[in-house]
Amino acid sequence: MRTIFFSSILAMLLFSCAGKTVPSTINPQAFNKLIDGKKVMIYTLKNQKGMEITVTNWGGRIVSWLVPDKRGIMEDVVLGYDSINGYLNAKENYFGAAIGRYGNRIANGEFSIGDIKYKLAQNNGINSLHGGINGFSGKMWEVVQNDIGELSLKLVSPDMDEGYPGELSVSMIYRLTNDNELVIQYEAKCDKPTIINLTNHSYFNLHGAGNGSVLDHLLTLNANFITPTDSTLVPTGEIRAVDNSPFDFRKPTIIGSRINSEDQQIRFGRGYDINYVLNKNPDQNVSLAASVFEPESGRLLEVFTDQPGIQFYTGNFLDGKYPGKKGKTYGYRTGFCLETQHYPNSPNQPKFPSVQLDPDQVYSHTCIYKFSVKS
Fold first, then answer.
1. 91 domain-assigned
2. In this structure, are 283 and 139 located in the same domain?
3. CA-CA distance, 306 to 88, in Å (whole number)?
4. What element of type H or E holds 52?
5. Do residue 185 and residue 229 come from a single domain?
6. Confidence class of residue 107 from pLDDT cuts 50, 70 and 90?
7. Which domain holds residue 300?
8. Residue 370 maps to a domain
9. What CATH number does residue 282 fall under?
């Protein structure tokens, strides 16, 4: 009994070492629903520093993420909802979702493999976006909690699901480390040649979800080039240098400092909504892609990946239509996304890195979101 007592005290000390800790405000009962005959569930990840992440099996979504500031006060820094109905009402926002089979846009909802042309749902104007009408963000994932810090999520997407060829078996691992990193590891195999581009669509606000704009955050992006788009936000195939443009974040820059410039690409996206071509170190498989610092809280988010690109989006289409967590609203530019990825429309741009997955291959993708604080 004495051993159990001291172990409990040690655990309490470890979980309070970041300062003030607060339990998640997510009520599992608010997610009590059957979708596709399966029960929606909430899972919780915790580490020894008091960080806590909740995830639902519907869409593999990150629902909440408690992160300390420089005073040790915890805030939920990802946009989302208190109930499953909130997510169902606002599917178009993709808050916290696992995205697939193909993250981002495919022009005209079509692509070819060899001589075979495939047609996808055009759910974003004339284009296909984030896997179609019912992509991975709307699927029920099979989830196993390996321990307090790790979840395994699996999904089988049948042949011609949303128009994509082949039966695709997908595995994701969400692992919360004691260094305040969320490591997301994706793997997939398919029994036919197909295309794939998985990512996560969490929106962050380092003030806390629903606590105002993100335009005062300082962003650094390790990228010399972007892939400019047409007016429908599909890359044209050009790779353009960021020099002397509002897209140059190679040094820490306030997000809002140039967001209303007259640059055509800014006008197309109503702000930032662009893929960056990451500077890759050939000696490092996973390397630093971006960092965001919010001076008031001291929160610093770093993003690491092995992917060739990252989509930077500033919530330009958020309109506050649906009440968020704690009744707060998410208006224009109150969240940002940093989605590690292959380039949008790669299947139709042969000069872009290939996104084709053949039956003898394994798709692999690592993304790490790491939080720390600095004064």
1. yes
2. no
3. 32
4. strand 52-56
5. no
6. very high
7. 216-357
8. no
9. 2.70.98.10
Which residue among the candidates 130, 201, 217, 365 is catalytic per the annotation? 201
| Predicted model pTM | 0.93
pLDDT score, position 224: 98
> What is the spatial distance between Cα 263 and Cα 60, in angstroms, rounded to a whole number?
36
Residue 364, in any domain of the structure = no
DSSP per-residue codes, 111-133: EEETTEEEE----BTTBEETTST
- In this structure, the answer to whether residues 331 and 192 fall within a common structural domain is no
Residue 212 tokens, joined: 């105002």
Whether residue 259 is found in the same domain as residue 338: yes
Which tens digits make up the pLDDT trace of 141-150?
999 999 999 9
Number of domains in the chain: 2
Rounded CA gap, 181 and 184, in Å? 9
Based on the residue annotation, tell me whether 201 is a catalytic residue of this protein: yes
* Residues with Cβ within 8 Å of residue 282, at least 6 apart in sequence: none
Task: Give the DSSP letter of residue 325.
Answer: G
In order of 104, 202, 254, the CA distances from 259 in angstroms are: 21, 21, 9
How many Cβ atoms are within 10 Å of 358's Cβ, its own excluded? 12
How far apart are the C-alpha atoms of 371 and 214, rounded to whole Å? 17
Judge if 266 and 323 occupy the same domain: yes
pLDDT tens for 243-267 read 999 999 999 999 999 999 999 999 9
Question: Which residues have C-beta within 8 Å of that of residue 210, sequence separation ≥ 6?
Answer: 79, 324, 325, 326, 328, 329, 330, 334
Q: Which of 52, 162, 339, 365 is catalytic?
A: 339
Same domain, 81 and 174: yes
Residues 196 and 54 grouped into a single domain: yes
**DSSP secondary-structure letter at 256?**
G
Is residue 10 located within the same domain as residue 154? yes
Q: What is the DSSP string of 94-106?
A: -TTEEE-SB-SEE
Cα–Cα distance between 63 and 67 in angstroms, integer? 13
